[in-house]
Amino acid sequence: MVTRRRIPLAPEQKAHYAAALRALTDAGIEFLVGGGFALFLHLRQWRATKDLDLFVRAGDVRAALACLSAAGFVCELIDPAWLAKAGRGGAPVDLIFCSYNGLFPVDETWFESRHRGDLLGVPVRLVAPEEMILSKSFVAARDRFDGSDIAWLIREHGRRLDWDRIERGMRDHGQVLLWQLVHSLYVFPSVREVVPQELLSRLIAQFEARISSPESRGACRGPMLDPLSYQVALERAGEPDPRPREDLVIVSDAASGDEPAGAEVT
């Protein structure tokens, strides 16, 4: 269900989220708001979400966990390749420093975003629509598909999008971008006016070349979109996981006591 103009959360939950935003802001730790809250600020409509997504550089994760722990949040590094979590009073916060498949680490280019807003009384910066489209294009699991978010972003911001940046960011995964654009064009036919025809033509040509090449009969790339549904295909064929993941937050010194207070390292 989509709700316009307001965030339908309990006052207590809003207070906890605002406390997390203020704690990081007061500590001078840079972050970008993403997920459902960013969509609300970009689109002025609420899409139900289970947590507050904050995007940070990998190098700031330890400081962010220590900051939130001091503010009374229970913190945990879930996956050193992309995700940490914090929670207080039923208000979960995700600290994301890379896409789950390893393609899009949060770097300086993310912080060039000029998109700003006020979230729960706290001035914040938002993940730009371009980076949202890139990362959401690969969220296509059995229980989660972000194609509708992409369609809405293109419908509302298509004329202002840096399409060249999106195309460059996809690198050799143009088929995924083409797929998402076809979905968006089907849902909102009017977006054909904002999606560059030259981009569609290039993506279609690349797709035709790709499916006729020997590479098209290669390994399964399903885990790039869904880490669970296609795992059996890799196991049966004995193939490596195609995700270019690496640990971006070092945890080897956890035993030495260098972890932030209150943070658990798994």
Would you give an account of this structure?
With 266 residues, the chain is α+β, with helices and mostly antiparallel strands. It folds into 2 domains: 1-127, Beta Polymerase, domain 2; 129-217. 37% of the residues lie in helices and 17% in strands. It is built from 9 helices and 12 strands. The strands form 4 sheets. It has a 6-stranded mixed β-sheet. α4 (129-136) packs parallel to α6, α5 (147-157) packs across α7 and α7 crosses α8 (197-211). The radius of gyration is 19 Å and the shape is globular. The relative contact order is 0.14. Residues 253-266 have low confidence and may be disordered.
Features:
alpha+beta; 17% strand; Beta Polymerase, domain 2; 6-stranded mixed beta sheet; 2 domains; 266 residues; disordered C terminus; 37% helix; 9 helices; two-stranded antiparallel sheet
Q: Quick one: how many beta strands?
A: 12
Domain count: the total is 2
Low-confidence stretches: 253-266
Strand content: 15-25%
Please identify, by name, the CATH architecture of the largest domain. Answer: 2-Layer Sandwich
What would a concise description of this structure say?
The chain has two domains: 1-127, Beta Polymerase, domain 2 (2-Layer Sandwich); 129-217. It contains nine helices and twelve strands. The protein has helices spanning 11-26, 35-43, 61-70, 129-136, 147-157, 163-170, 174-187, 197-211, 231-237; strands at residues 2-4, 32-34, 45-47, 52-55, 74-79, 83-88, 91-96, 116-119, 122-125, 140-141, 144-145, 263-265.
